[in-house]
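# nightly structure sweep
# worker-07 picked up a monomer target from the shared queue
# config: single-sequence mode, recycle default, output format = structure tokens
# input follows
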Amino acid sequence: MITDLPLLTVDSLVVRYGAIEALHGMSLRVSRGKIVCLIGANGAGKTTLLRTISGLIPAAGGAITYQPNGTPLALHRLPAHRIVEAGISHAPEGRGVFGAMTVRENLELGAYLRRDAGIAADRQRVFDLFPRLKERLHQTAATLSGGEQQMLAIGRALMSQPKVLLLDEPSLGLAPLLVEQIFSVIKAINEQGTTVLLVEQNAHMALQIAHYAYVLETGTVVLEGPATQVAGNDQVRKAYLGEE
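# output follows
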């Protein structure tokens, strides 16, 4: 188990879609300053978990606790915009950019809840991580390539100054060179102080940059441990890393 103080705790979480139970009492912890990855097959519950943490799906049971400053917040009782305000942002599967809006407008929406003077500095941080976005600043998001849209989705999430960044399949559909770039940026974001909870089909790359990993199957955690240890597990190597 993770031994240091968790920033985010999921305890016995149950999520249902009508009569179908998608998460069966799932528990996990995300430690401050770490990259924690979730791996598993399609339908394992990875996206459902992230969407529940960010307030897009209601929990049917259990608890999600976030403790950024010593006072725990029950996230499962908060609306989505309050969860963003508390310091958790979500770059969803499929990117979810606003196609008719420009790159600049998408980034501004990421900072919608902010009233501080640091927005311009954070926009520059995004440009430092993704120089291509600065070049495309006045283009509509619909005209961007898939890789550029993924950069924009992550950049928009960063504009809310999150303490925890939820990333759902950031490498999905990208060329290998772009996959390497995206993972390099995720590592840089974490090194700058942002905790990351990463859902990723590319288990090999995810386990390379993560500190801790959970393996999910049909809504349940079946294996957890330091990422290097999980990567060396025989079942994980065969099922997710393509090794014999």
